Amino acid sequence: xxxxxxxxxxxxxxxxxxxxxxxxxxxxxxxxxxxxxxxxxxxxxxxxxxxxxxxxxxxxxxxxxxxxxxxxxxxxxxxxxxxxxxxxxxxxxxxxxxxxxxxxxxxxxxxxxxxxxxxxxxxxxxxxxxxxxxxxxxxxxxxxxxxxxxxxxxxxxxxxxxxxxxxxxxxxxxxx
Length: 176
Prior knowledge:
Blueprint: H1 12-15, H2 17-26, H3 33-47, H4 50-62, H5 67-71, H6 84-97, H7 106-115, H8 118-141, E1 170-171, E2 174-175
Antiparallel strand pairs: 1-2
């Protein structure tokens, strides 16, 4: 995280550079970028992190994500625009972000486990945990939205639905 982003209380990257670098590495996954963007957006919506919403919206759009899917994300259950994998990832994101007594419901876990292999599921959990940590840091330090531009962290966002390891690419939840 750049020290160049205004924050009302503390610029966390300058105060704790090793920990910020570790958290950045923790969030690097081989997940489909479209799913990663949706997870980051949904958790940030739930947590009310304006800085992260601004950043991940811009990254998702720069990667080719459709605006309509981002607008509808808060009501993803009612929209036909999300794939079964995306729905499973979003349900898990919500369950992990707002842990209920007893933890993640078995039905949510079972659906995610049916849609993702073990390695993907582990990376999905790390992506969810990572964005929740970022949300808490940015909200607490009062990071100011509106200054981030895609690529500010040294890497342009991957296109939404980019193919990985011989898998077909998906755009907007649809395999192309």
